[in-house]
């Protein structure tokens, strides 16, 4: 199977995953701009209050936003040195196994992060300076994990089809 570095398919899943990743990129860009403004502001006596807190939350949310895109684009880390001599059927099986693991990982993380969000909300945990309720950051993270599960289910379906075609993704 050849990877293109772009999500497979042009349907609603690929569109949603791509849009979500672009939003994550925009958030990361905003964090960078805010950090530059904070450093420059500190030099002239106008630091950005709570920049560390916003960076921490923004980078976490952005990192999770990229996971579904990586799954759908099949851009996750792989050890190609071990599969150089594998045939198309074996590669298709390993791809299927990776999609199953990604789906299980997404569902496990979705379950545990949801419980974590409820705990954060119950205990009223907030950031120190800006007093942002921490549970709010969990909402886009949970959306990312749900999209990751959908992306993994999409690649799993493609992998099952590919394996039944003798390892070819037609």
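Q: What amino acid sequence fits the structure above?
A:
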């Amino acid at each position: 199977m050849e990877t293109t570095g772009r999500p497979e398919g042009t349907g609603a899943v690929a569109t949603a995953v791509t849009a979500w990743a672009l939003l994550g990129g925009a958030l990361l860009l905003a964090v960078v701009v805010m950090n530059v403004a904070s450093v420059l502001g500190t030099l002239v006596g106008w630091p950005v209050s709570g920049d560390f807190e916003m960076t921490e939350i923004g980078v976490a949310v952005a990192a999770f936003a990229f996971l579904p895109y990586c799954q759908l684009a099949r851009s996750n880390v792989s050890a190609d040195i071990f599969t150089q001599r594998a045939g198309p059927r074996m590669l298709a099986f390993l791809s299927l196994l990776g999609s199953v693991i990604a789906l299980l990982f997404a569902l496990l993380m979705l379950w545990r992060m949801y419980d974590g969000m409820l705990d954060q909300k119950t205990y009223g945990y907030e950031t120190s300076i800006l007093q942002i309720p921490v549970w709010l950051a969990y909402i886009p993270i949970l959306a990312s994990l749900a999209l990751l599960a959908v992306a993994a289910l999409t690649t799993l379906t493609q992998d099952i089809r590919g394996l039944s075609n003798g390892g070819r993704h037609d």
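Q: And what stands out in the fold?
A: The radius of gyration is 20 Å.
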